[in-house]
Every structure is written in C-alpha cells, then in structure tokens.
Batch of 2 targets.
Target 1
Amino acid sequence: MAFQAGGPHAQDRGLEAVVYAYEDMTRTPAVARWEKPQGKRDPLVMEKHFTVIPRGIGLVIGCSTFPTWNSYPGLFASLVTGNAVIVKPHPGGVLPLAITVEICRDVLSEEGFNPNIVTLAADSAEAPLAKELALAPEVKLIDFTGSTTFGNWLEDNARQALVYTEKAGVNCVIIDSTDNFRGMIGNLAFTLSLYSGQMCTTPQNIFIPEGGIETEDGHKSFDEVAAALATGVEKLNGDDARASAILGAIQSKATLERIGEYGKGDNVILASRSVPMDGFDGATIQTPLILKATDESSYTAELFGPISFVVPSKDTADSLKIVENSVKNHGAISFGIYSASDEVLDAAEDMACRVGVAISFNLTGGVYVNQTAAFSDFHATGCNPAANAALSDTAYVSNRYRVVQSRKHI
Amino acid sequence: MAFQAGGPHAQDRGLEAVVYAYEDMTRTPAVARWEKPQGKRDPLVMEKHFTVIPRGIGLVIGCSTFPTWNSYPGLFASLVTGNAVIVKPHPGGVLPLAITVEICRDVLSEEGFNPNIVTLAADSAEAPLAKELALAPEVKLIDFTGSTTFGNWLEDNARQALVYTEKAGVNCVIIDSTDNFRGMIGNLAFTLSLYSGQMCTTPQNIFIPEGGIETEDGHKSFDEVAAALATGVEKLNGDDARASAILGAIQSKATLERIGEYGKGDNVILASRSVPMDGFDGATIQTPLILKATDESSYTAELFGPISFVVPSKDTADSLKIVENSVKNHGAISFGIYSASDEVLDAAEDMACRVGVAISFNLTGGVYVNQTAAFSDFHATGCNPAANAALSDTAYVSNRYRVVQSRKHI
C-alpha cells in the first residue's frame, strides 16, 4: 500500500497535472496569422507569437503521511509550466522526496537541462526552513499540504506567491438506510482501517439517526449499527499479519498519543489495540478507535489518525444539517452517504453542491470513500476550508504560467 | 469611437470570457462511466456526476474611462460560471453600466431567471460603497479596474474573494531605428492622440537614443525625431472637427489639471491646446502634451491622459534596460519597439518575456500599440504590476467556479 499510494498513484496524480497544464498551455497557438478586412483596401495582416513564460520559482512543502502523493501534483504542475522547483520535505518524511529530487535531477541532466531546476531543501523541526523559503520574493508558487494553521499562515503571508493549500478537514458519513447492511459495514470497516485513518479523505464522523435505520433485514437500532461497525473493524483487523498490512504504522507520535488519550473515555465503542509485526519490533501499529460522540464539541475538530465517532442525530435531515455546517466551517475532502431513498440521496447531493464537497453514494463494494482515482476523481473541490484547490483541474495549473505575445505586420 | 470601444469591442471581450469559461467548464463531462478491472472478478463500475457550482457573488467595480469595456469580461465571466453579479459603477461613469444592468435584468427575466442575478450598486464619491461591498463575506469574486492604490487595497483586504485587478501602468515605446520613418511617426501620432491617451494601453514614455537613429532617409538626431513626432501629433489634430473625433473629451478634472500643470514646464515639446466642438460648448477636449524627460523621476509614475515624454537614452541597450526596470517596478500593458535590426527586436522580445509585457514590433500602419483585438490579443499578461490577470485566458475564468462530484456503483 505504501507502494501504491507512494508510487504509481502519486505518479498518476503528477502526470494528471502535467496533462492539464500541457493541454491548457497548448490551447494558445505558438504562432497565429491575423487578418482584419479594410473594405476596398488590403487587409491588415499580422503575425503573432505567443510565448509561455514561467512565474518564477515554485516551492513544494511536503507532508509527513503521503510525502510523494501530496507533492507530485504541485511539483510537476510547476515544472511543466516552466518553473524551477524547490522541494522542502516534512522533517518526518524526507527520504521519499529526496529520492524523487535525485531522480528529477538525473533526468534533467540527461535531457540537457540544468539539474538545479529541481532542488531539495531539507530542514528539521528545530531549524525549520519553510517560512523563510515561502517569503522569498523569487518564490511565486507554493504548494502545501499540512496543518490549517500553517496553510493559513502561508495564504496570509506569502502574498508574492500563488498559494495552493490542502489543510485539515473533518470528513463525514451519513447512514440513513441501506439495502446492503453487510456490504456497508464491510466497506466502512475497511475505510476506517486503511492506512490507520491517516488519509485526508478518511471519514471521522459517522452520523446515524438515534432511532436507528431500516435495512434489508429490517430495523436496526443505533446501538446495533454502531456495534456492527465495531465488530466489522475488529474482525477485519483480527489477524495481526493482515491488520499490519492494512493499517500500516502510525506516522507521528502526536497521533499515537491522541489514540491513547481518547481511548481513556467512557464512550469507547471499539478500543484500539497495538498490533505486533514480525521483524519490526518498534513499529507503532494500532487498530482504529471508535467512540460514541457525546456533544458536538467532541467531534468537530479534526482528530487525525484512526479515531472516529458514531454520532447520534435526530434523523437524517438533522444529519444533513450538521454535516452541511461541518463542511462549511471545518472543511472536508470526502463525504459518504448510505440511503435506500433516492430523495435522501438527492438532498445529500444538493447539500454537497452547496458546501462544495465530493459525495459518494452507497459504497458497499471495492471502492472506498477515502480513495480517489486520478484522471477520474477530483481530490478536494477547492471551495471549502479543507483545500483552496482541487487535484487536478484547470484552475490548479492555468495560473502557474503566463503568456507573452509579440506581433508584427507581415 | 465611444461606440466602438464602449459597444462592440466591450461585447467582444465579454463574449470572449464566456467562450473561455464555457470551454473550460465543459472539459469536465457532466456524467462519466468508470470501470476498474478486477482480474477474474467483475470490474468495479461506477457512474460519476460532475456539477459546476458557482463561487458566490461576483462584484464588478467599474472604471470611469471605459466603463463597459473594462467591466464586461468580469461581469460575463462570473455570470456564465453561475455567480450572481453586483455591478458597482464608477461615480463618473454610471450610465453605461446602468443601461447594461437594465438589459441584463430584462434578458434574465425573459429567460425565466431571477433578474436579481445582476444588480446595480451605484454610489457617489461622497458616500462610496466599494469597500463595504468588497468585504462582504458573500462576495467571492471581484473584478476591478482603476488605481493601483485601491487595487492593492482590494488584493490585501478582500481575502474572502478572488480578486482580479487592472491597475496603473507606464507603457513605453523604444525607437531604435526604422525603415519607415513617416509610417512610424504617423502611427505614434495617432497612438498618442486616440482617446486623448486615456487608454490603459497608451504609451507614455518614448525612448530615443541621445545620438539619434538611422532611418531610410539617413540619420536623424534625437531632436529631429522628437520634432517630427510633435509635428505629426500637431498636424493630426490640426482640424478641430477631426481632432475632437479622435481625441474625445477629457474624462476627469484631475487629468485636465495635470495637463495644465505639466504644460507649464520648460521641457514642453508640443503644447496642449483646447479644441472647441460644435454643439458641445462645455466639452473639455485637449490635444496631447509632449514633454522632454529631464531625469528619471519625471516620467516613471503614470500620468494618466494625453501626456507623454520623449526620453533620451544612451543607446538602445540602455533603453531596453530602463524599460525592463520600468515594467518590473511600475507595470505596463503595452510595449512597442521600432527597429530595422532583427537582433534588437529579438533582444526586446526576450526582455518582454522576462518582465511579462506584450510587445508590438514596428507598427507603421493601421494597427496601434494601444489596441488589442479580442479573440486574438491578450489584454495585459497578469504578471507585472499593471494587472494580476489577462483578458481573457483560462486562468481568468477557471477559478470562478468549482466542480462537485458524486459517484455511485451501477
């Protein structure tokens, strides 16, 4: 899985950005002949040249959990539009980007370019470089994935640059009803477990009407749904070898500590357990922690990692209202809903369009709400607090370059 | 001419923005079928829907000199991408936009839309509305043409919105040499006179080597070139009826006062004269004022209106260097060069690409450096201080909307 998301999927997203940028740049012809009729006189005729010029230097600030996947779109979008790029990896995820930069430099040299078009600026938590680099007047493009605090700082302070940010979000799932209860539980169990919930698309809050839901097997109470979800996650991760492959390690100490802290409450529906992994004694692998939400304040902040809440709502209309406000105020990259009612699905899609979040309907098979496919799914919408850009669309690439025109009579 | 630039040319630019936006929005299909092979099992199949959603409310802040031409691109770009638009005209140019808004509302009603999708917010110099509107949280797009001071204020303060600005600039022409002296002088004379230099594309500073230039008729000294230009402008505007048609009225009192003030110096090469117009006794029509630059500080700020400088440079290399710094520091929308040397033209184009300004070579006929044609010429580049966007390109339209996606198995 590290291979998948770190390698081909990251390269997919990089290539996707290249395609968008290439298509956009080539919409303007390099040369055009222009004629203006002048009545009986000869027409005015001009030859016009259009040159794509770069913005300046691009700065890519990597994150720790998916160093390549979250960096490649910005890296390649800036490169293909002619900008040099400085890659500043997260101190906790240097190697994947160091390898990337090394290969970029090799390829640039092989093709006769100056290898310094791509450089690495590794720093440490003690002596961070990001702010200094971000404020350099030569830096005209910044791509960042990470905390809302630093993302907002970049947007507010690096005013000489165009800043593309992906920040924190709180993803939600609404369960209204289902005609495939088993499929729904299986899908959600995998969703919550994959990469230990360390994806920016993993749902955190799962809304279930307090009166329960209708299924193909009849009514199920809130507690029955919550218990089924807990059992599903527990069983999926019952075998240590399989669990460690699905979960992967917990990346940061802060996440580990958060699991410990939140696991102490009296609202635990499924406790997190440590998973041993043969040959990796120091690996910090934890199964997901599932909690029952107490009040709204308990679940509205992002708790990055494998911590999720089942949240009782009055009814699905209430769930929709809460999620709408949550996306508006706290951002979200993914949103899933389960319902056997087309009316409910339509209302959910309307809401998703109002607040700008991608929506997945009734995922009960091999597609998970936290997965997006390059060339088919947009990652983030760019219009809620979780991100100010989408991967990838025209808006993500079209301002990374400009066009300078010349014209002369011929 | 008011008809031309105010009517069809403005509509051209509006339509151009619509075309760019429509093409960009329709690059993403409304519905797509997605299949993922699963080895021997059935493929995963999904149906995905992509919905274009607006940003919110667009605010168009009009300018006084070309109220329609400078407003239509933003107005129509925001409208076609689904945003409602508030039009706030300049207090000195309300009527053209009031008529525009009235027609927009009629058309919206005819087509079954709410006419309030387009509204007019006229204000006065005493009780301005622009800042209040610009900071409204619902306003997500702002298009502005006007002063650098207010443009920068918008960029710095209306952080909830995407802000597209066209601000002040200092356009330059370099004369290196020519094989059509008469054509060059005729072209420049018209360029300086058209609309009394009240176009954001009119050149202000004309650089001529202090040692003079080579022409098809042999060498001409700096003074001879300057005198020919003065004579050209004087003759073009010698007939009052023709002059008033080419010049049009001076729009603002500030411009009139500036002409008076700068006309008092001892560096006047061509004095400005008032032009009477039959039937319009109060019309303030002035022929262009041409000055000889004394030191750099005399010509580096924008002196909006029919005031231009002939500037002696050491040589053309010096001219290029001065213009490069001028564009970088003070912005420019147009740049013209006259040279019989391909080497000089190439160097000028390289410089134009470095600083991001459109360049016109050897205009000696019926095309003028201050004119751009929609669907063929970009207006501004968006990468020097004169404007942060170009009319029109993908970058100008592609972030005015977002795409929200839904997906389900089929």
Target 2
Amino acid sequence: MTRRHDRAFVRTFFTSPTAVEGDNSAKMLNRAAELRGMQAPDVWVPDNEDATAPGMREEGVANIIDVVAKHGADVPAEIHPRVVWHRDNASTRASGFEQIRRIADSPAAPYIDGFVIPEVGGLDDWKKADELMTLAESEAGLPTGTFAMSVIVESATAELALADLRETLHQPSNALERLFLLVDGEVDYTKDQRAITPTGALPEWPELRHNTARGASAANLIAVDGPYDDIRDMEGYRERMVDNQARGQLGIWALTPSQVVAANKEPLPPATGEWLLELDGDSVSLTPDESGDVYAYEGDRLSLTTTDDGYQLQVGGETHQLDATALRETITERTAYVPSLSDIVDSMEEFEAAKAAGQGAISMERAATLELDGVTVEISKDRMWDEATYQAATTPIDLFQDVHDARPDQHDALADRYGAEVVDRATQVG
Amino acid sequence: MTRRHDRAFVRTFFTSPTAVEGDNSAKMLNRAAELRGMQAPDVWVPDNEDATAPGMREEGVANIIDVVAKHGADVPAEIHPRVVWHRDNASTRASGFEQIRRIADSPAAPYIDGFVIPEVGGLDDWKKADELMTLAESEAGLPTGTFAMSVIVESATAELALADLRETLHQPSNALERLFLLVDGEVDYTKDQRAITPTGALPEWPELRHNTARGASAANLIAVDGPYDDIRDMEGYRERMVDNQARGQLGIWALTPSQVVAANKEPLPPATGEWLLELDGDSVSLTPDESGDVYAYEGDRLSLTTTDDGYQLQVGGETHQLDATALRETITERTAYVPSLSDIVDSMEEFEAAKAAGQGAISMERAATLELDGVTVEISKDRMWDEATYQAATTPIDLFQDVHDARPDQHDALADRYGAEVVDRATQVG
Amino acid sequence: MTRRHDRAFVRTFFTSPTAVEGDNSAKMLNRAAELRGMQAPDVWVPDNEDATAPGMREEGVANIIDVVAKHGADVPAEIHPRVVWHRDNASTRASGFEQIRRIADSPAAPYIDGFVIPEVGGLDDWKKADELMTLAESEAGLPTGTFAMSVIVESATAELALADLRETLHQPSNALERLFLLVDGEVDYTKDQRAITPTGALPEWPELRHNTARGASAANLIAVDGPYDDIRDMEGYRERMVDNQARGQLGIWALTPSQVVAANKEPLPPATGEWLLELDGDSVSLTPDESGDVYAYEGDRLSLTTTDDGYQLQVGGETHQLDATALRETITERTAYVPSLSDIVDSMEEFEAAKAAGQGAISMERAATLELDGVTVEISKDRMWDEATYQAATTPIDLFQDVHDARPDQHDALADRYGAEVVDRATQVG
C-alpha cells in the first residue's frame, strides 16, 4: 500500500480556538497562523469543536475562512480544521457537514489540507463523514479526495474499527483512502469506558495507544497521541512522548506553543550523545565533564570505594566485593548509550560501507570513561549490526529527512542544533 | 445503542455454592439470601458450576428453586444462577440446558433475573446458549429475553469474540440483546493460554481486562473482573479494584461477604479527601492532623532541613538545595489529591454554575498545608475544567446515583458514610 | 479443535546460517546437526533468510539438502528451514517458492518437518504461502499437508491476522491446518511500527506477545517469542522467558547453543524449591543454609531488631513496631514460594487422592524458617486447591511430559537434574 499524503510523519497536532470572546474573536487563529520554525506545528487544527464554545462556532467557521484565506499560503503547517461530529447524534453530524461545506466552498479552500472528525464510532460512521466530505467537494467543484480526513479515536467502538481499516480503505464504494491521521482522545475515551482513577488523572491507556499505532501501521496512516492537559509539566510531556515513540506513535497533540516546540524536537535524535546508568530501576543521566570525555554520577544511590583487593560497590540495597574486571562488567551491564544524530549517521555509514564490501554483519563498539563516587571505570559496549538492525535504525533518519523536506522554515533551527555538516550528512544517508 | 437492563453498573458479583455436604445442603444459599445493605451484592450468583461439587449439582438446582422461591422477593441483589456449560463438550451444554429449564419453569422463575454461562467459546457458542434460554423461556410460557445472559470470558476464543459483540447483538436471528455482564475468569483463562508463573500466582492479564472493558463499552454491557483467590489479602483486593477501575472495569467477583463489602464500597468516592505524596515511585498517603488542616509525612523516605539560604531536600537518592519557591514547586509536583464525594459534587456544581453563566472552562484550585520532616510547606494545585473534564468526572456520580436508585437497602450505609446532606446533593447533581 | 502436530510444546527455535564464507560453507549447519540433549533445540531452523547473506542463499539451499539428507534421521529436533518471503515483494515470494520446491523434491524431504515463512502480511498472504507449499508437495508426489508451516509475525498486518486464524484454518479452499508455530519477530516489527527508543533497544511489545499467545491458544498452535539479541546477557534472557511464560508464550528463539540450553531448561520447574522475599518491589531469592531448612536474607534492604516489647522492622522506607504475631503476618505477606517439580507432583497427587475420596477442595500448607537480619521468623502459607487450581497447575507437567515423550535424548539430563524417581512420578501424574 502506498502512502497518499505529503507527510510521512507528523510530530505535532496543534489546536487553536476558532473564536474567543472579545474584540477580535479570531485572535487565537491569527496568532497561530504567524508561527514559524520550531514554533509552528506539522499539522495546525483550527478547532471548531471542544476548544471553542458552542455559541461561538458559527463565527468560528467565518474566522477560519478569513484567516486561512489570508495567511494560508504562508503557513508552514498543513491546515486541518476540526468540525463537530458525534456517532450518536445526527444533529451534530448535520452541523459538521455544514461547517465542511462552508469552508470547502470558500476562498480558504486552496489552503485547507483536510478536516478532523471527532467522536467517530465504527467504520460505518467513518464512511458517513467520508461521504459528506465527498458531497462537499462535489458542490465546490473539487475532485473527490481533495481533503484528507483525520479522526479522533475516543470511543471503544472507534478503537475496534482500527483493526478493520486496512481492508476497508480501498473499497470502491467509499473514498476512505483520504484518511491521514488517527488521533487518540483519552479524555472522552475515559468517559466512554466509564473508567475512574482516584485523583481524576487520566489512565495511561497503553492498549489504546498500541492499537492506534498498529492500525496506522497496517493502513499506512499516522498515529498521534491525545492532549497532555498539565501544560506546565514539560518533563511529564516529554516522558509521555518517549513512551509513545516506543509504540510507534511519533506524533502528539499540542495545546500551547511551548508544547509545539517540545513535540517538534523530541522525536528527533539528540545533538549530543548521553550515557545512562541504571540505579534502582531508574535510568540516570551521567554528567560529562568539560572535556566531554569523562561521565560522572553525582547522586547518592551508588557508593564505590577501593579496598585492599579490589572494590566495594553498594547499589540497590546490596554490597558487592569486586575485582577490576568484575567491576567493569557490572557497571557495563548497568549502562546504556543514547546516540546523537551524528552517532546514528556514523553507524549507518559504517554499515553501508561494510555491506558494499560484502559484509552482512559488523560489530559496533562504544567506549567511555565513567567517574562513579570518585572512582574511574573504563567501559566498552559492542553491538552486532545486520541488515535488520540497520533498517530499524533508519526510522529516526526517515523522520529527520521528512522534516527537512517538508519544513524549510525549520532548516535554521536544525542547523543551530546539529551543525550544518551533520544536517547535510543526515539528509544523504540511507 | 440503549442499555436494556435495570442496572447500569454492577459492583459485586457474589457466588454461593448451591449444595454443600451436611444436614442442610442449602445452608450457603440461605445465608446469602439473607444479606442486606453493604453485605448484599449487586448481583448474586447461586453457583451450580465450579463452587459446587459435580455430584451435588442436581440437588443444587432444587436448592436454588426452593431458596429463591422463598426469599427471592426480598433479596436486594439481582439473582443470576450460574449453570454448567463448556464450548468443547456437548454433554455439559445439555446439562446446562436442563438446569435452565428446571429453574425457568419453577416457582423461583419470577425472581430470577438471568443466568451466567461459563466457559463460552466464540460467538456461535454464545448463540447456542442464547437459543437454549429462548427454548426454556418458550416452554415456561415466558417472553423471549425474559432472562438476561452473562458470560464468563475464560478462553482466548471468548476474548476474541468480545471484538464482534456490537455487530452481533442486534441480529434478528438471535436474542443476544439479553447480554448483561462480561465476567473475566482468570484461573481457567490461564489454563487455556497455557501460561506459567514461578509461584503459581495468576498472571495480571491486563490485555484481557482491557478487551473485556472495551467490549462492554462498545456494546453497552457491564465488565466484571474475576475472583481474587487470596481472600485474606484485602489490601491486594483493593489494589486490584483500583487497577480495574482505571480500565473501565468497575465490578469484581466476590467470594466472601467481606469481599462483597469491600467491593461495594471501593468504586464509590471516599468520604474524606486525601493528599498523596510520590516517593520512590510509590504514592504515600499523608496523615491529617486533628484539625484536618495539616497533612504530615511520617516515613523515612524523605528528609527536609532548613539551611542558611533555603532548604535541603533528600529524596529518591538525590540531594537538592532549594529556595522556598523551588521547594514549593518540587513538592507540588510530587503531590496529588484524591477528592471526596463532597469535593466532586462541589466541583461539578461550580462548573455547572460557570457554564450557566456562559463560561466554557474554569480553573479549580486546591490548596493544602503539608508538614514534611517537621518543615511546613504550603502548596496549591489548579486544574482547568471544561465540558470534557466535567463529563469524565461524572462516572463516579453516575455510579453513585445508580446505586442509590437500585439499592434502597444501602441508603443507611451511604448516609452513615457521607452524611445525609452530601448524599442528597450527590443524587441531584449532573 | 485437535492439535495436528507431534509436539504440543516447543521451548526452543534455533536458527543456523545455511551458508557462510570459507572452505566449508555448511559448517554451521553441520555443527548444529550434531547437537544432542539439552544442547539440541525442539525446533531447528536452517535459516536461509536473515541469518544468511543474500548472495549465499542458493548455496544455502544445497547445504540444507546435503546436511539434512545425511544427518536428518539422527537429529533429535524437528527440522523447519526458513525460506525467503515478503508480503510486499512478489520476487521474494517467487524465490521462496523455488527454495521450498528444491528442498521438497530432494533426499532431505523425509526429514523436513515444515517450513518457516517470514514477513507475512494478512491471511491472504498466508494463503499464498500455503498454496505454494501445496504445489511443491504435489510436484514432489507428497500428500497436501506433509509440511508444517510456521510464520514470523513481524508486521502490524500479521498481528491483526492472529485474531482471524481460528475461523480460517479449516476452510476447505486452503490447507492452513498445516500451521504450527506463530513466532514473533520484534526487530522487523519495530521497523514496521516505526517505533523509536532513545538507546535503540527493542521495545517490549507486550501487546504483540499477548496477541500472538492468544491467537495460538484459540487455534491450537504454539507461540514462540523472537530473538534476544544480547547473547551475553543470560540473566536478561531468563527474565524475558519468565515474562513470556506468564503470557502463555512458552517458547523462544535461540541464537546460540548457550541460549538453546537456557531456553530448554527455563520453562521446566526447578529441581529445588525457592523462597522469595519482596523488598522495594523486587522479589529477592532467600539463601538456604546447609541443612536446607533455614532460608536467610543477606542484603541491606531490610533491618530487623528485637526490642523490649517485640520487633522493629525497617523496610521500604518505613519503620514498623511489631509483636511476634504481626511480624509473622507482615513477613508472610512479603514471601512467596516457587515450587520444585517434586513439589508440584506432590500437590497434584495429594489433590487427586482427595478428589478420589470425594473432596472438591483441599488446603495445601507450606511452612518455612526464615532468618532475616539474624532474627528467626517461622512462617506458613496455605492455599486452597480446587479442580481449576489443579487444572492450571498441570501446564508445567503437560510440558514436562511432552518433553519426556518427544526427546529421549534429554532423559539423562532430566534424570541428572531431578533424580530418576521424581522424573518417573512426573511422567505418571495428571
């Protein structure tokens, strides 16, 4: 199955209210339309549903048309307004249809990449939204499939539909090939599942996120996680992204420009590598010294002293007497390296060269000097790379290249972060 | 889809042996039939399958008929006997049919709300049980669908069927709209999956519980977790319920009257709010002083001292030098509040008033004085509430109201726990 | 549904390159063909796909034919070569067909138990592989279904297919009843899901492993986990197997003879029982003294001292003042027992005797003397056994008996590990 959309990856899904109280009801739309570089999302969602008060949504449609007609040509993001919709409410669906019609047949239409449909149910409900988009396209004299369709998965029924997407997308009786993003909506999903937590915090819903990523993978779509409400907790937002990425969900909703910046950067490899030390089940980042050659642990969770015949290591509630070799092995097992973009490019180039020379697998070594409780330990880790390792390592590079191609407005930020030479090599490799 | 049954929530699924050795083989049934208030379950299951020895099951049916005919009118629980059944054994299914027929055509029938079918396979097997219930209803002169049908999900095949329920329930060729509870059976499921744990403890099966809750949500049914064997470990039972609730599985099996009491209470909000402090990955409850205004931590996992220029905080293996503002922020991040029923009603009323006044979102603040290692820290957390937050918060209130409507025998216990005024407001809100 | 294959369990799936550089390109195949006893896997996979360089695969087929024709009769493992295949590449599928044809119509055929098909997609793709095996069987004059078919689940599409296996396997238009193993392939699955982890480590993919085990259970097939790359980390490999077993995935890929030995032994019960103590969320094994009667904890994570009126216990960041009874209860809650093969056989025999005497449930007690920080604590745990407990406990015994029946070359190793008398009783029980 081939991917039908321009973007192969979407890091950020940024929603803006379409109309707010006050003199200039389009204020938030105008502000968002001016974002550039790392401040600008991959997908911008003028949100005529939950982010906008019900009484303001008529005006919201007018604002979308005005602002997008005026600024759309310059906005670096794709533009996908969210309209109202509900699987259990025909009147809401009728309103959603009207919103799509008005926008599709307006001066904003050339800059509209698609629409976001919330609160979908089973695939028959997705087909209804698809058909109404087809009618709106027809009325506006646009070819079927002009607009992409993204859905918010926020019901058990929609989650179940994810398993059947691949077979349904290419049926001749619908135009569901227009599907683009599968976005989780954990707040309403929690309501639909009637789940309760003591503090009212949202459950983690790992199975929902797995099923969304899997559905996206099977149908060549893109999975995006839902909003992270605690907008001041940037560390929590980053942890959520790391967890999502390990599931194949590389995009996330952003509620604020700060979240946009964080979510644009997080899935890209770091600019400098990092050594991690596992202590009591946590991965603790080691601090490089000024030279960048020695990595130190500065906390209290590990104690290491030299003894007459070796070393005494206290960690995880246990005391170990070790000689130099055993110490090195014990510490090596507890460390891991987070490669930088430059490291990944190096490894890929090294493997490509080996493959060209007829080698199917090579060993990649990574060494470091650690300083633990004042004691110096030299460690070295190696890993076999074969074709499969190489292929799996290319995902961050594919993402990097997709960003580089689609977002010239971020070239300066990428060069600032990685250096022009690394950016250049990263666009060539693979 | 509309819900067809009286109860929208079931907290407790309590099984009793139908016949035991000794003079009075109906002893356990009689004892269970007399339970009232928090001791009485939402669903009572005279268990003519695993809880009763095979040789006693004929007598078990007679006991069910006698005890339910005599006490059924007064039992506050719904009554759903479990009969024998097996997807792979026609003779067992024939016996289950006979058990249903005898009970359906007996003086107990008016008090029987439905039957529980264990060991089901795929949906074709569910249809067989449904059809035999339809025949038994016909023979007894009862309309099709008189009896609800609940199933025990204890095979991989039944788990897979959960994804297809929504489409199958309304087919004209069956009466599966009678479906009521989806109950997990982890002991037999573990056998069916051929899973092994070193100690013989049951695996957690989070995916099974997710899929059961999701299937229930998609088809408007009710998900119930299986038995918790270690009947003396009430703390473990409560932790299991907290985990279940975060998945949308608000009911659980109960093997003893003590488990019934615990499971009736646990999904309802607490009577008093509670502050939690996160320490080394655990959430530790803080102890209110006599006034209820100051919450103290009394363990050894945190040390906090004042220094010349601020505070020294030791926690999680690390030492932090903090000024007053940074201390407050660090502690605020590590705390969470568990709202009481009264708190939830307050917040909902506040949001309803704001909405009536035209506001779409408001900030709710919660402040507290903490005493940590003898040092006083004032914290304050706020959270945005919008329509979606409000909707998600209503699940415990919907549950409370369902309990209040369906279980007048628990009114005294609710008033004792929460006070009459809070109970009254909780029945009005939403 | 009945199981169609000789083995009901497969512990080990051992891949060997079919052709390597050097004088004797069949070196690795020859070495693997000579393995016996615990060094020999349950399923041996001459791997003509990823383990063999693309340019060597023609020679690889010739090597498989030579080595299997010569040694096949004596190899204790089942022999299932892996051929090339890809759901998205017809040319790769054509090559896979050629490889199957050559082997099926060769002197090696009588010793070939089946083929392993990697990179499958949806069930239509599985049917293509099945049909080409049917054609190859026909050309070689062999009955349809002679060769088993095992697949590597390494795409979202293949994962989704697992839910439909049960209904598809018995369709008259295919021969998919030949299906045998469902093997996860996490490296390529990670690529297919476009997942990223900071260190490049593979995600855990618990949902994939659950779905594979569930699909196997529903269709009477066997689930096998993918390769564990870090071949020096035997402890990590063992932890992975314990996690897999709790999901019903009792087999695992092995890349080296050391991994084969570990994976053959791990799912079998231990030779001696073990007491575990829970400390800070970890299960720590207690050390028996020379007599085997007293189990001691020797770490620093627990401190226990006698006081004037009882005991002071420090554990998990909290200090408890306890009398003798409370101490015993607290410690009992924190302990668990891992039964040996002999213990399991004892319990099963005890339950069988009780059942023969008309008892449906009995209590099994297990007592021990612990020494914690120099203080002696006597504990005792009991557990109710009923028919369901008994049934669930039989999985390790069923596995043991399957190994004993199918692998006479491992009889000596089993007798060495457990003693001849325990082995004998374990083959009789159940």
